[in-house]
Design a protein that fits this description.
The protein has seven helices and five strands. By secondary structure, it is α+β, with helices and mostly antiparallel strands. It folds into two domains: about 1-130; about 130-258, Heat Shock Protein 90 (2-Layer Sandwich). A five-stranded mixed sheet has the order 1-2-3-5-4, with helices on one face.
């Protein structure tokens, strides 16, 4: 009699254990499904955001290309015509040659500046250039036209190949960083460091007035900073910003380690 009771208790406990185990497995499977579904939704949302950001960037690039062509074809040609008229005036009135020479020089310099700006805005020309040389050339152009010291340290060893999107996005981020410095930082020095080992990094530091980045991030980033971060995400790069009031700002664009 007692053995039958004990057997019944053991059988009941085993049945309960099996039911509990089955319930645990069901819960785990359900959690696993929820995690997979959540990850799938996140990946789709991420892909959508990337596609949206890419569409915005393509639109911006098209606008910049149009501006580049207008500068080259319209403003550039008009300056060439002005220079031609000045040369004719010097030929017709030799006594004015000395007075007109500074004007001719200014027009020539302006024409060269517009040509450089036009090239820097045109992504078709950019994709045909070496990225490091394009950044160095733009820094040199700015150095000639601005009362600010700009240094470039480029170490491209080992040589890295950039795809078209990487070239365009990295260069536009570089332009955005420099533009922010010129507009807001009141800096007297800018240093640009480029290297490819162990992975690509672009580090831009200025000695300007700086700002409270953590506070700015909590209150909401500016459109310029948001654009840079979104652009970097499209090519799987990251941006880090270090800044404090009166201590300048350092912006680092890094290729994600694989």
């Amino acid at each position: 009699m007692l053995s039958n009771i004990a057997f019944g208790i053991i059988t009941g406990l085993l049945f309960i254990s099996l039911v509990l185990l089955f319930c645990v497995l069901l819960v785990k499977l359900h959690i696993h499904k929820i995690k997979n579904y959540t990850r799938m939704i996140y990946e789709k949302d991420l892909d959508f955001q990337k596609s949206l950001n890419m569409a915005i960037i393509e639109t911006q690039e098209q606008v910049l290309n149009n501006i580049s062509r207008d500068l080259h074809d319209d403003a550039g040609q008009q300056l060439t015509a002005i220079n031609f008229q000045l040369e004719n005036l010097k030929f017709d009135s030799p006594e004015l040659s000395q007075s007109l020479e500074p004007v001719r020089t200014s027009v020539t310099n302006l024409s060269q500046s517009i040509r450089s700006i036009s090239h820097s805005l045109n992504n078709q020309l950019l994709t045909k250039q070496d990225l490091f040389r394009a950044i160095s050339a733009e820094a040199e152009r700015l150095q000639k036209n601005l009362p600010i010291a700009i240094s470039v340290c480029a170490q491209e060893s080992p040589k890295k190949g950039f795809n078209t999107n990487e070239k365009i996005v990295i260069y536009r981020i570089f332009q955005e960083i420099i533009n922010n410095i010129l507009k807001h930082a009141k800096a007297t020095q800018i240093s640009i460091t480029l290297h490819t080992a162990p992975h690509f990094e672009m580090i831009i530091h200025d000695n300007g007035k700086g700002f409270d980045y953590e506070r700015t991030k909590n209150e909401g980033l500016s459109l310029g900073l948001s654009n840079m971060i979104h652009r970097a995400e499209i090519i799987d790069y990251t941006i880090s910003i270090e800044s404090e009031p009166k201590k300048g700002t350092t912006v680092k664009l890094s290729e994600k380690a694989t």
